[in-house]
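The record is kept unedited without comment:

——
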Amino acid sequence: MADSGLRVQQAAALHRQAVATAEAAAAALESEAAPAADPLEQHSLAEQLRAAAAVLAPGWLGSPLDAQSANTPLGGVYPPQFVRLGVAQPLDDARFPAIIPLLGTGHLTIDASATDARVFGLLRCLLLRLLAAAPPGSLLVRAVDGVGGGAVFAPFADLADAGLMEPPATDRQGLRDVLAEADKWLRPGRGALPRRSRRDRMMLVVIASLPELTEGEELRRIAALAQQGPDSGLHLIVAGWPPPPLTAETTQPPLPRTTMVSVRNPYAVIGDPPGATFGSAPEAQWLNARVFLDDDPPPHLVDAVCRELAAHSAAATQVSLSDLLPEPDEIAKGEAADGLGTVVGHDGDTPLVLRFNDLTPHWLVGGRSGAGKTAFLINVLYGLGARYSPAEMALYLLDFKEGVSFAEFVPTRRDRTWLPHARAVGVESDREYGLAVLRELDAEMTRRSVAYKRAGVTRFADLRQVAAEEGQQRPMPRVLCVIDEFQVLLAGNDPIATEAVGLLESLARKGRSYGIHLILASQTVLGVEALYAKRDSIFGQFPVRIALPGGGDVLEPTNDAAAGLPLGTAVVNTAGGLGGPRGATRGHERVVRFPDPHADREVLSQLRHKLWGARDPEAVPPRIFAGYAHQHLADDPTYRAALAGRAARPAALVGRVIDVNLSTAAFPLDSSPGRHLAIFGSQASGSEVLDAAARSVAAFHPPRTTRFVIASLVAEGDQLAERLAAEIAPRQEVTLVDAAGLAAELDLERPGYRVVFGMDAASPGSLPGLRQLLREGPGRGVHLLSWWRGLRRFTEETGGSAGREDVAGLLFLNVPQSDVALMLGRPIDWHPRPNRALLHDRHADRTVTVVPFLQPESDEL
């Protein structure tokens, strides 16, 4: 208790000393007993001080604001050291600007709060002068107004969006947050990247009034900041200091390194600045003149300055793609043993690095349409591609929306380069293709598991080290799979969704251990039916949540950090979307700015070509699935191999399977029973698929080793049949027949292929040898390739269920699911759509979705 009493006495004594000093200054100024100086000398001195003030505080810093033009250029010398408080008036007709040193020197305290109209106006004047005079963007302001609710700073609200001045704190917690930010300014976090241009920036904390219930802890923190601040570019303007000495905790001495202003009526007294004096006598502690503080500045002036600063800040703080990339000599130098990392944006001046490792293995990205999701992902992929070589990182990219998000990374007609890290890229992907990619990643995880057991390790980094010690030249890369609009893959509750959810859960839970990582991006993660039972088990493995405008549902429901985000910004949360107390500092959450990567196409093009030029000479382009693209027989590798004589047994090639490799959809034609192919569909594309099948079969045979009988029974097939006959004729025997000729050719005496366009157009009963050909033909080298516009005639002609096994190859185009299920005799998951077909092989019991081969002319339709 004795110590407590002593502290009270000491604090009270310090406060009395400060008050006594101010009162002595006021008394001296008001005293008429002191001998007056020579008026001529006073006027001469005032002129000298006016001239000195014009030099020390030019333009915005010292000119009368009511006469200042809104067109006066902003900026000037850094830092703007001297600033005007008002007009000193030693005599009734002698005046000069009262200026003090502030930025770069110390602080300013006023013994009255902004509830005094003169202090209210002075604070606005000081803010306006300093902001206008400092180089744009070099002065950051943090404000506190605990009594006035922020009214002092209301005219400066436009600076909030520019990042120059946060909304003012109005309560004790807000004051604590401001002091915490100021403390960080003094002591940047350990391991933090250096602030960009830190030496060219200052922070100014302006306290218009202390909040109610402010306690000694906050007051001591203010005093500590005052002591250390100037050396780190931190300065304070505190109105209402010292606070009333109500308790020992709230009784405070004058702040160190501070110029004190004591407000009287109607003038003020200005104390000596830090380390200097206004007077010539050693005992002088104040300016020996009454000072009339500047009034509230003209509103139009404040508005003009704030608008110009905001515009400059918007341009100056624009993040470019170059800001996210490594230095040129660091391109592709990263090692992925312990993880991947890249800059995703800037939090203020600080680049924010996000990583893929054991702690943050997967990311979940949300944002409404047009929020910049694609731009963010492209930034991340180019950032990673620039930091790591293809030997360190492999990419699988899937885009399920109607767009070309990842066409950026594949060869095109105009630009044959590609991102060498890309292994497979799906543009407007089908769900089947997405499922195929997940299957491949799951298989890769299994292969790596075997490698772990063989090497006797449990960590990815250890496996790479063992491989290096064994002399393996190529390290095992980390794998990153990016799925944009992943909810499309999981839509509904069908077998595809069910299997995809199971694979995603497996990859999410175990992938980190094997160097396999995921980015799932979507407009919404809510309402995905297939995830109802698995949401927590899957998303719980995604600690990194990135919310763009409209993407707040990737955060916890109580976390509203993404509300009101402007375009080009994102909330980055590394705690699974968890928030925290409103207004509290969240170490796990940052708001970053990120660029539009296409804003500087030259930089983007140069980077892409540089990465492509540095690829391994043996590197091949990524496997590309473009959901909107047609497939052509001439581009198929199996067909080309057949033309070159490198193929084995004959097969009808009908399209490309929707798998990662886009394998050729082939139906083998051997001597097994039922090796005939029937194509179903009312559209003319059926004739094009039949044409491709016949051409491919011809390519498998050496010249003059087989025979083709070609018939077109419908107008849609006439031209194709003629062109097909003309192309095959130089290599094989070809006979072009009509319906009557076809009936005669349905015999088993001459091996070969019967190719029929529109077979359902034949008159009922006009093909008596058809069933025998179907049943016995393959064993005698006779195969039927046919296109049917309806299933009913096919069933009638082939004998119904009794002849079901006689045609093993069935390709369905625009045939309803119910009809397909009836034909196959079992339920089937099939949704007919343009440029897709379902291939079923009865004998292999295999059903796959394919992209059918069409004529090149179809691309123009």
